Amino acid sequence: MYKDYKFSNQIKVLSISLTLIGLLGILYGFYAAPSTVEEAKEIVASMSHDSDYGGSGYGESDHGGSGYGESDHVDSEYGYESSGYEYDHDKHVFNQLHNKPWAAIYVPALFFMMISLGVLAFYAIQRASQAGWSIVLYRLMEGVTGYLLPGSIFVIIILVFSALKFNHLFIWMDPEVVADDEIIRNKVGYLNIPFFFIRAIIYISGWVLYRNISRKLSLEQDTNNNISIHKKLFKFSAAFLVFFLVSESMMSWDWIMSIDPHWFSTLFGWYVFAGMFVSGITTLAIITIYLKSQNYLGFVNDSHIHDLAKFMFGVSVFWAYLWFSQFMLIWYSNIPEEVTYFITRIEDYNLLFFGMVVLNLIFPLIVLMNSDFKKTNFIVILTGIVIIIGHYLDVYN
């Protein structure tokens, strides 16, 4: 029988304290962000004397004489392209600065929602494959996936604010941009606000519906030995995995890739899946070890920890394979509208871009290759923390 876990007072105090600190940081971010073009110009002017932005702000940096508009690559964080869209420079700078606090909350909202979604996929795979070793972790997986609905709601709220023009994260939501940008106009059948939110509702409804039904059936198994429940879970999980593969790929296009609607990658859905999958499994491993140390999960032994660590190792290699495949194919083909994704990140975010590859591949590869280390709780937790940080940086990038 399972016993309920109760949060200690220390953890509650720490959680509340970190939440308050985070809220203060968010509030300060919105307070410091400019609310008008004039305020943005003043901020840039105050920075220009000790930076390389140049005399008129961002305009005369080393990217070109009259601003980002004359650079050779897309400013992918904000989605403008030099060759396709003529824009007001001051408004562009305002959008850059105004987007910062919105991006600062969107990244973690998306990241932690995807951890829960990754665990849900792992849970469905265990059910569909009728795995025996993971039965003792079902309740834990069901607990982690309980965050999926509130996490998805947080993401949707930010997307709604984007559609209401509170920020400029998704430039295809701006009719003025679309009118002057042929590339985005050609995608308007897919990238339009009503269809965008219809798809989002379908994704979330499917995920949450599977989670709640499987949770209900799972609880019934505790008191009912009827084999029909097991068969229902098997069939339901197999069907869900088909829906998940399609919806997760489309979610990655909608909620991440469309931030820069000029760029696309056919590997992107798989790449995002690999990141959320290994992050979810890693979170599961860390929580399992913690609960085991608190005398919960009595049936969990070293072999279960070893299996989770093997998944951490294997999926990290799978993620690296997709990262390299996407990078190598795009870099080798050298198509301007594709390669600009990597040029921007290598030039402007070099340390973060390659640093997260070290955290997500090199470190876990070296450490978890040893079979004994996969059974050592301290090493699994240490590696897990590194992987979580690495994939957070990946989402940030």
Short description:
This protein has 397 residues and is mostly helical.
Give a written overview of the molecule.
Helices cover 70% and strands 0% of the residues. It has 397 residues and is mainly alpha-helical. The model is unreliable at 53-86 (pLDDT under 50).
Structural class based on helices, strands and sheet pairing: mainly alpha
Specify the number of helices.
14
How do the helices and strands follow one another from N- to C-terminus? HHHHHHHHHHHHHH
User: What Rg, in angstroms, do the CA atoms define?
Assistant: 23 Å
Beta content = under 5%
The low-confidence runs, each spanning 5 or more residues with pLDDT under 50, are: 53-86
Largest sheet: none
Q: How far apart, in Å, are the first and last alpha carbons?
A: 43 Å
What is the helix content? 55-70%
Oligomerization: single chain
Q: How many strands?
A: 0
Mean pLDDT: 87
Rough outline? globular
Please supply descriptive tags for the structure shown above.
397 residues, 70% helix, mainly alpha
Task: Break the fold down into its secondary structure elements and pairings.
Layout: H1 9-32, H2 37-47, H3 89-129, H4 138-144, H5 148-163, H6 175-180, H7 182-185, H8 193-221, H9 227-255, H10 268-293, H11 302-333, H12 336-348, H13 350-368, H14 377-396
Helix pairs in contact: 2-3, 3-4, 3-5, 3-9, 3-10, 3-14, 5-8, 8-9, 9-10, 10-11, 10-14, 11-13, 12-13, 13-14
